[in-house]
Amino acid sequence: MTPDQEEYVERVLTLVEGVPPGRVTTYGAVAAVVGGGPRRVGTVMSLHGGGVPWWRVVRADGSLPPSHDERAREHYLDEGTPLRRAGVDMAGAFWDPGEPDDHRQGP
DNA sequence: TTGGTGACGGTAT
DNA sequence: TATACCGCCACCA
Fold first, then answer.
1. CB of residue A28 closer than 7 A to nucleic acid strand C?
2. What's the pTM value of the predicted model, to 2 decimals?
3. Residue A60: DSSP 8-state
4. pLDDT mean across residues, chain A
């Protein structure tokens, strides 16, 4: 693993850890911040996502892979994440890592 | 070097 | 609303 890779992985994981409980972000949103592409982020998560709240990173439509969907749902219920039939209610739970909704950096 | 692949995204049917 | 396809970026045989 090259230093570049480790750094990229660390940036992804750090950002994921920054997602507030009860909220979620998407692979694409993460990729928009750390660079690379959504698929790259997904690959990183599959390999190193075990140590972070991986369930707070979902696909653009608010769903997760069937295998992890069940496990994630328990976390969502536990955290009070707004859910919808297909998965997470993106309209209410989406959190943009590039612009946290606490955009009160100014008056 | 080439081709195939994946915890993805967006548009077309 | 559910599927199909194509585009994307990096990794690997």
1. no
2. 0.90
3. T
4. 90
Q: Per residue in A40-68, pLDDT tens?
A: 999 999 999 999 999 999 999 999 887 78
Closest to A87 in 3D by CA, of A56, A53, A43, A50:
A56
- Residue A51 DSSP label: G
Angle, in degrees to the nearest 10, between helices A27-34 and A3-17: 130
Q: Which of residues 68-107 of A touch strand C (CB under 7 A)?
A: 86
Query: In order of start, what are the domains of chain A with their CATH numbers?
Result: 3-93 (1.10.10.10)
Strand B and A25 CB separated by under 7 Å: no
Strand C: positions under 7 A of a protein C-beta atom: 2, 7-11
Alpha helices in chain A (DSSP H): 3-17, 27-34, 38-48, 66-79, 90-93
Tell me how far the alpha carbon of residue A36 is from its chain's centroid.
15
Task: Check: CB of residue A49 under 8 Å from CB of residue A72.
Answer: no
